């Protein structure tokens, strides 16, 4: 499998990790990632242990919400120039995200890493770490993005209306339904409430049941 | 339960015996129409000219009649109670019968109109749904993510409102289950007892 296309936009290395890679058609990361990987490939700069630690730090930065610069504060990484460390860390994180986004398989990864002069052992290490974290990375990437307000739960209340100040002797049941909503972009949790009588609730439930039967049929195709 | 008619109210209604039954019946019709659609002052002027009185008098007469009808309908008073309440006004037998008939003929509709005045939450109108599958996004390719898109139609104070929402298959099943339980509640002994005994 051919290595990925050259990316046209790659920001200069910064110590800020970017969760979302901007390039639409990136299949091969640009110079900064390549340079970072070439350093990572060098046993003189990174021994096996340091290499693994750096990879793990990259995954931690991506997957752990609380992670910060301290991921690189490991005694076994202290001897490495901090600028080099940050550069390689950013390169690894960037590449992991790109690979995850495009669902790269082992052979794609291997080919690229070979190009970066990784030895067999390091390629194996990289692929193993990648495989271990693949699901989490995919879940992370899948959760980014805009969507419609999402219903997360429903609560209901049944009441028996007796009178209002405008109308006495009413005697009718009514339902109050509240839908809990999650708004993924604004992280807000508004609610939608509405009242309905028995017929209306039957209509609502009937339609939702139709939708779920349709869903069941679709998943069996 | 008898209606409590204020001094002012009685004064307004005092106009009614001064015109003949056809006019009172017409006033009754106007009163209900005003409840349905809102009042129209021009009608008062037309009637005032024909009857040779001030339009204020006509207005008070119609309003008095309206109030009589709405209060009676609101409380859902019995025929007997209505007759007794009106009796104190000292009207003729014929007029009393006419007023009673007006009440009985219109109270169902008036109650429906009054029920629309209650504190209003958005109420359910209807729902449309659609099944979608997300195949890819900017941040992740090759996905298979089913979703149900729902367009909820609500009414509030006469305005039609729609909300477009989404949910996943698991939540959809959960919604159906919860709302079916809600419907089941009405059939329980507890609810039946309440409905039977609160009248």
UniProtKB/TrEMBL annotation, chain A:
Pfam families: COMM_domain, COMM_HN. Residues 150-219 form the COMM domain. CDD domains: Commd3. Residues 1-35 are annotated as: Disordered. Transmembrane segments: none annotated. Residues 1-20 have a biased composition (Basic and acidic residues). PROSITE patterns: COMM. PANTHER family: COMM DOMAIN-CONTAINING PROTEIN 3. Belongs to the COMM domain-containing protein 3 family. This is COMM domain-containing protein 3.
TrEMBL record, chain B:
InterPro entries: COMM, Commd2. It comes from the Eukaryota. Residues 123-190 form the COMM domain. PROSITE patterns: COMM. Pfam families: COMM_domain (PF07258), COMM_HN (PF21672). This is COMM domain-containing protein 2. The gene is COMMD2.
């Amino acid at each position: 499998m051919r290595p990925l296309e050259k990316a046209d936009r790659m920001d200069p290395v910064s110590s800020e990790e970017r969760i979302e890679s901007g390039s639409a058609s990136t299949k091969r990361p640009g110079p900064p990632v390549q340079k970072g990987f070439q350093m990572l490939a060098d046993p003189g700069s990174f021994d096996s242990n340091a290499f693994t630690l750096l990879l793990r730090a990259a995954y931690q930065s991506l997957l752990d919400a609380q992670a910060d610069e301290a991921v690189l504060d490991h005694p076994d990484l202290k001897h490495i120039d901090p600028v080099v460390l940050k550069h390689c860390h950013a390169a690894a994180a960037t590449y992991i995200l790109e690979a995850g986004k495009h669902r790269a398989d082992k052979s794609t990864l291997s080919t690229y890493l070979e190009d970066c002069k990784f030895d067999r052992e390091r390629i194996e290490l990289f692929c193993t770490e990648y495989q271990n974290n693949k699901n989490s990375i995919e879940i992370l990437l899948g959760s980014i993005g805009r969507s419609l307000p999402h219903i997360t739960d429903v609560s209901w209340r049944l009441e028996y209306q007796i009178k209002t100040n405008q109308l006495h002797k009413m005697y009718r049941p009514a339902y109050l339904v509240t839908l809990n909503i999650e708004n993924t972009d604004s992280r807000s949790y508004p609610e939608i409430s509405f009242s309905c009588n028995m017929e209306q609730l039957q209509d609502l439930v009937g339609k939702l049941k139709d939708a779920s039967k349709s869903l069941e049929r679709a998943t069996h195709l | 339960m008898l209606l409590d008619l204020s001094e002012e109210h009685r004064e307004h209604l005092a106009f009614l015996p001064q015109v003949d039954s056809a006019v009172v019946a017409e006033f009754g019709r106007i009163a209900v129409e005003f409840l349905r659609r809102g009042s129209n002052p021009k009608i008062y002027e037309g009637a005032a000219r024909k009857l040779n009185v001030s339009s204020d008098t006509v207005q008070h007469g119609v309003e008095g009649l309206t109030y009589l009808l709405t209060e009676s309908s609101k409380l859902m008073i019995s025929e007997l109670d209505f007759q007794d309440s009106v009796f104190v006004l000292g009207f003729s037998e014929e007029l009393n019968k006419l007023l009673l008939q007006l009440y009985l003929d219109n109270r169902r509709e008036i109650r429906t109109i009054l029920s629309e005045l209650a504190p209003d939450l958005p109420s359910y109108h209807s729902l449309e749904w659609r099944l979608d599958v997300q195949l890819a996004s900017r941040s992740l390719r090759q996905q298979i993510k089913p979703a149900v898109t729902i367009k909820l139609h609500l009414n509030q104070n006469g305005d039609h409102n729609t909300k477009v929402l989404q949910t996943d298959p698991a939540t959809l099943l959960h919604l159906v289950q919860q709302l079916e339980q809600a419907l089941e509640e009405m059939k329980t002994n507890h609810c039946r007892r309440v409905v039977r005994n609160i009248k």
